[in-house]
Design a protein that fits this description.
The protein is mostly helical. The longest helix is centred in the first third of the chain and has 31 residues, at 24-54. It has helices at residues 12-15, 24-54, 59-88, 99-103, 108-114; strands at residues 6-8, 22-23, 94-96. It is elongated. A 3-stranded antiparallel β-sheet has the order 1-3-2.
Length: 132
Amino acid sequence: MAASDISHALPDETMNDIPTGMTMNELFAIIEAELVDLGAYAERMQEVLSPALVASPESSLCRQEAQMLDILTQRLQGLRTFMEHLRRGLPETWLVDPSRAARAVVLGTLAERLSGAKDVVPLPAAGEIELF
């Protein structure tokens, strides 16, 4: 992250050069929410696909694939917990402008959410398809 993207409650004359899009706490909360959603999707995939993978004729290979779904779900949960605890320890005065980083994200609605946009199209509900 470039120095121009983050600040630590700098004196007023320096703050004019630094974008003040949101606090780090706000950004971390947005990332946390994304991880929660992804974790729920992964958990749902695991619930739906794992029984079929385990029952497959190529059971040993498919069992490994089912275990990868479990690992994905656990890692997303771990990252969400990590972000939550990091966010709790951040000073409220730390500011960040996530716009440049958000522009690098290919999915438009995800980029909007990460940049802190307030009126973003909601995520599709479980069972809905999001077409590209």
